[in-house]
Amino acid sequence: MPKVPRPALAGVNAAGNAQIIRDVLAGAPGPARDIVVLNAGAVLFLSGRADRLRDGLTVAAGAIDAGAARATLERLVRCSRLGGGELTPDA
Length: 91
Known about the structure:
There is one protein chain. This protein is mainly alpha-helical. It is built from four helices and no strands. The protein has one domain (14-81). Helix 2 (31-46) crosses helix 3.
């Protein structure tokens, strides 16, 4: 992942930040995606769900590219709009 200046990662406001999230989860390349993949990959590695950091990065990028990450966010949004409840794979 290339090194980028800190302002390249800064959000502007809630609407702008939400758009960044939508863009990342739609597969848009760039520094925001790189950071999301790095963070998610590190969590997968540190939680034992990936044997190596590199494996975690691959799984995280794959979840974004396959649309699984976006689908999970959409389920979370639906659940929150319905007033809570359990977030299940079929929700």
